[in-house]
């Protein structure tokens, strides 16, 4: 079994060799620079293998939408993650499923049954009065850490930047640890356009009023992850990451992939290398 203390080591202590100009990553347990993996039904063996390869890079795991209702060996999976220093939680859609049926108290008992200290409150599929949502956050935050999600899963619902800011701000004030910016697993709603590109104006408006360290951006697509790393740096909070994309994402964070290769090099290195790459070939090379 994995020992929690192993995962609290610093970023550089866990690397296989030394390299200069690698950005400093926050260390677990992190307050920002979070990576959230979306578990849509890994088996126990797959969970063990995931932890062996990615446990030190993963902070929280979301059991996507309602998968926890049908997942085999759910209690054992939760314990595997917890013993590895990863905080699992049920996706906000499951909260909405309980709430829509008038079963909020039952939902709290389910969280207690599985010893989950992290919970999500969302209204991406249902219409929930925002004052009531904040009251639910306050209630849950008394005994556990709360994530709350802002944004609709319906691409046809428009939320103004001012409304995004107000909802995020009031939910943080109500007791949310982080507010999740909706992007879905498809990456084409919420803070993203239908083609998957970022709503740049919306995001810039949001971060002008809300501390980016308090926001967890759902970014399932590589191009979206690159965009956020370039905007916020290595320690941006990113979620809805596929199990097989955790290490590739960490390489993006550290400038170890072509997409972010030059982000963390000193200016003189960057300019010199770019000049070399753009030099005209000699006659011999031609």
Architecture overview:
With 286 residues, the protein is of the alpha/beta class. The protein has one domain: Aldolase class I (TIM Barrel, Alpha-Beta Barrel), CATH 3.20.20.70. It is 37% helix and 13% strand. The chain has ten helices and eight strands. The chain has an eight-stranded parallel sheet with strand order 3-2-1-8-7-6-5-4. Strand 7 (215-218), helix 8 (222-232) and strand 8 (238-241) form a beta-alpha-beta unit. Helix 5 packs parallel to helix 6 (161-174) and helix 6 (161-174) packs across helix 7 (200-207).
Which features would summarize this protein structure in a list?
10 helices; 8-stranded parallel beta sheet; alpha/beta; TIM Barrel; single chain; 286 residues; disordered N terminus; globular; 8 strands
Number of strands: 8
Q: Give the mean pLDDT.
A: 89
CATH superfamily: Aldolase class I
Q: Sum up the overall morphology in one term.
A: globular
What's the SSE blueprint?
Blueprint: E1 35-39, H1 44-54, E2 60-63, H2 74-83, E3 87-90, H3 92-100, H4 104-113, E4 118-121, H5 130-141, E5 145-150, H6 161-174, E6 176-181, H7 200-207, E7 215-218, H8 222-232, E8 238-241, H9 246-254, H10 267-278
Parallel strand pairs: 1-2, 1-8, 2-3, 4-5, 5-6, 6-7, 7-8
Helix pairs in contact: 1-2, 5-6, 6-7
């Amino acid at each position: 079994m994995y020992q929690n203390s192993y995962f609290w080591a610093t970023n550089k202590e866990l690397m296989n060799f030394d390299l200069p100009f690698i950005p400093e990553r926050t260390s677990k347990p992190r307050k920002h620079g979070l990576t959230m993996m979306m578990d849509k039904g890994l088996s126990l063996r797959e969970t063990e293998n995931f932890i062996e390869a990615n446990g030190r890079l993963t902070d929280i795991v979301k059991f996507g939408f309602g998968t926890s209702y049908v997942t085999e060996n759910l209690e054992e999976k939760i314990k595997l993650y917890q013993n590895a220093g990863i905080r699992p939680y049920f996706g906000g859609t499951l909260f909405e499923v309980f709430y829509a049926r008038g079963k909020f108290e039952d939902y709290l008992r389910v969280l207690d049954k599985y010893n989950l200290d992290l919970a999500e409150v969302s209204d991406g599929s249902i219409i929930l009065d925002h004052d009531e949502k904040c009251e639910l956050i306050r209630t849950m935050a008394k005994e556990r850490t709360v994530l709350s999600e802002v944004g609709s899963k319906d691409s046809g619902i428009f939320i103004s930047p001012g409304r995004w800011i107000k909802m995020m701000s009031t939910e943080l004030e109500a007791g949310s640890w982080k507010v999740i910016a909706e992007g879905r697993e498809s990456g084409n709603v919420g803070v993203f356009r239908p083609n998957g590109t970022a709503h740049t104006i919306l995001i810039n408006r949001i971060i002008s009023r809300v501390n980016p360290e308090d926001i967890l951006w759902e970014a399932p697509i590589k191009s979206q992850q690159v965009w956020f790393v370039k905007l916020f740096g290595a320690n941006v909070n990113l979620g809805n990451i596929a199990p097989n994309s955790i290490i590739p994402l960490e390489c993006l964070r550290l400038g170890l992939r072509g997409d972010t290769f030059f982000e963390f090099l000193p200016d003189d290195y960057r300019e010199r290398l770019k000049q070399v790459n753009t030099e005209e070939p000699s006659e011999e090379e031609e």
